[in-house]
Amino acid sequence: MRLPWSTPRPIRDLIVVPPEPEPGRGGLAVVAIIRNEGPYLREWALFHLAGGVRRFIVYDNGSTDDGARVLHDTLGPDRLTLLPWRLAGADQDTGRPLHPQILAYAHALQCFGGAFARMTFLDIDEFLVPVEADSIEAALQATGGHPNVSLPWVHFGFCGNETPTRTIVEGYRDRCADLSVELNFKLVLDPCEVTALSVHRARTRSHGDETVNDQGVRTDYRGRKDPAVLSCRHLQMNHYFTRSRQEFEAKLARGSAAAKTGQSYARKSRAKAQAISGRTEPCLRALEFARRKGLLT
């Protein structure tokens, strides 16, 4: 029984009606939510633009900085759809809040998904890195066209940085050596197949709960956590969770739109930072891709 003063668990899964494929649909769309992310947007956008992203669908959750201008200047109107968005809502009968990201993700999928062959949902601290291929779509060829690809987070901690670095890909070169630490996944989906959506999992019309890793190995959502299935051979989902110590402390001070309390968010975030900053190993994949694409000067 839920105590009267406790916070109801957020609704994290939505059933959705997949959009109809539009004539000539193709390419990859990235969906993101921003709130005062201005200093990071240019590098993040250019990196994924170099990876072949066709469209950036960005939801602005009440930013007060220059993030919108940065995106417009970096991407232009042909690549950018920028929408004002307020991420709040709850079930009328139970009072359970809707998870803040899911409303935007479902809106993007149903309103824009019909134009694209693939859609992925990223935070600004996540970089989708083609390991050897020159584009994200080329790296996805190993998945055999499966409509539901699960990519495990590859975590990067402080990497010795006390203050912000010139670029993310240059400043963060040591990843958590164990993929199973703070394990979760981000998805690359065929939007015209999705029938249920959450932040870290989805269901498709043709394959149900089945998903594949970046090598095309098929599994279900429990099975994708098997160490034998975890893979970042062709595509790596870099998660720069902390950035520098200064930026991490500022992040904790801002809090999270999805957190129950500021204290619980800070406590969990510090524990996560400690876990992913334990045993590390060098990882230059994002830096090497940026160099291949001429992104660094």
Automatic annotation (TrEMBL):
| UniProt-recorded Gene Ontology molecular function terms | glycosyltransferase activity
User: Does the UniProt entry include the keyword Transferase?
Assistant: yes
Q: Where in the cell is it found?
A: Membrane
Task: Using the UniProt record, give the first listed, main subcellular location.
Answer: membrane
Q: Does the keyword Transferase apply?
A: yes
Mode of membrane association: Single-pass membrane protein
Span of the secretion signal? none
Under the cellular component aspect of Gene Ontology, which terms does the record hold?
cytoplasm; membrane
Q: Which Pfam families does its entry note?
A: Glyco_transf_92
Q: In its UniProt entry, what is this protein called?
A: Glycosyltransferase family 92 protein
Its ancestry begins with: Bacteria, Pseudomonadati, Pseudomonadota, Alphaproteobacteria, Rhodobacterales
